[in-house]
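Appendix B, example 12.
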Amino acid sequence: MGRMPRELPIGLTPPDWLVRNLRAQPAPVNRPAVIRAAIAMALPLAIGLAVDRPFYGAIASMGALNGVISDTAAAYRVRIPTIAIPQLFGAVGITLGALVYGHGWVAVAAVTGVALVSGMISTIGAVASASGLVLLLTCVVGAGLPMPGAWWLAPLLMSGGGLLVLVLALLAWPLRSGVPERAAVANTYRTVADLLTAVGGSTQAYDDARHAVTQSLNQSYDIVLAHRARHHGRSPELARLLAQLNAITPVVEAAPAAHLAGTPLPPEVPEAVRHLASAVETGYTGPIGLKPATTETTRAVDHALRHAADVVATPDVDPRGIDDRLGRPAALSIRAARALRGVTLSAASWRYGLRLALCIGLAQVLVSIIDVPRSYWVALTITFVLKPDFGSVFSRALLRALGTVAGLVIAAAVLAEVPRGWWDVLALLLLAPLVPALTPRGYGYQTAAITPVILLLSDVLNRQGTALLLPRLVDSLMGCAIALVAGYLLWPESWHTRVGDRLAGAVDDTASYLEAAFGPTPVDPPARARMRRRLYRDLSTIRTEFQRALTEPPPTGRRAAAWWPLVVAVERIVDATTAARVRVRHGAPAPSTAEVTQVALQLRELAEGVRKAETLYAVRTDLTGPAGSVLEPLRQEVAAARAIASPH
């Protein structure tokens, strides 16, 4: 007999929340981004050395690092604001920081005020978040390091380094214009093919495939709609992509009905969708090779798939006739006004701004009282850890500390063994690609990649070699400690899971969607489709929030884990509602108004119980209904959700 594998003693088994934090996320290496990072960060330093101004080159390379961190968009037109706007904020930040450098408490007040503004604008959106981050980072650097040359030179160099990343990113635009948008739409078609492959099989596989479809649709709509907003809806290419996205929506809607039927779809059905994905990218369609459907649910899938094939094969689409599934994007002036109103009136933006300002203020006061070498690193650490859209503050503080230690090991070898001068360029050429390569793996991996780059550039400015290592470690740990205490433990909202509130909102919206789909007041199909898309987008956000909460230590992680069965139950309720609508559209009898009202009341009672975090002891609405009704699967899912929410 073989020997049984030895198990770790219970006391040596790492806790689940720690394992989740340390697990690397699977992600492909973006080779163009890797090459861009190497060139954009090494070239300024090389030019600085060539003209005997290495300090200038190091500052420009720091700006390039900001640009590499900001370069997260796939579509070329989206990259322009994504990279360029943060560089403008960076120029303002380093100017303000340099003006208060060495001014004691004036510098403390100035950096704290910038932190408040940075935190508030970070809640607007992705570009604003990156801009707020770069604004505060550069302000802290300017207030902590003497800048060479005239006051305007440092912001010019740093912005120039960031814009070099943008120039390199746009070099292929004339040859690849529109390719990222088409690739995103084609990828959505392929995720739908995977969903249809999972129909009738394992529930877990189907749920995972459905979640992947939601994420892909969100990404594709975001990319295409952001592109369209700059063309005011008149671009035929963008109209065609939107039409193709809209056309795949009925296929996604038909999938729950087919899955509830319990029979796998013929293999030629998902293969036809993959064929259409290739057609989106290449423009060549050809026959999709579908056999005649024989059942109610397969007819729904067949009808939706043939419609999608017709849309993909259509060469020209009238851009004025396109109605997207998320609503038309607002004009830039309207969106700017809404964003400004959100910053000035939103309690969440003020709360986050005050939290970040408190932590930065404490850090500035601390380093003003205590002689801390390279004290600006304390505030830099807090800035990264407390970003509102970067996930759990606790897990980021933990990963920041661990990533810094790992990065210091690499930096120690580089600073000890690599001679100064042109060898620094070669070292930077090898270290810079690690930033875009490791960033998608997780925050700890990003920190481990950025740390040696920052220390190498800091050594060019300060010429202190390995003496930089210990202060970097101490300052990072101080920043993590301040963020954990003043930015996490003192704010209950940061360590209380918000899964329940968001889940209750999704259940309420499901009741509204049910009434819109079957109620006496007709709702036009595009409006219903927008409601369904928002529902699935919200459920995707809830999943993300759930995954974030699982990285928290007890008791937050345990409380979040308790919500998971109900999260899955609500997703299935939305699927059952969608499936019922598809069945009615393809010939099933519509439910009565009384039954629709009854199920909607059941859903709202469920939402009320979830929102109050109380068990549903009293069921006020009858859970029974007519046998054979199109809503019978929905009633069963609601009953299952109630059983999960109540222990009795």
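DSSP finds 27 helices and no strands in the chain. Residues 497-645 form one domain.
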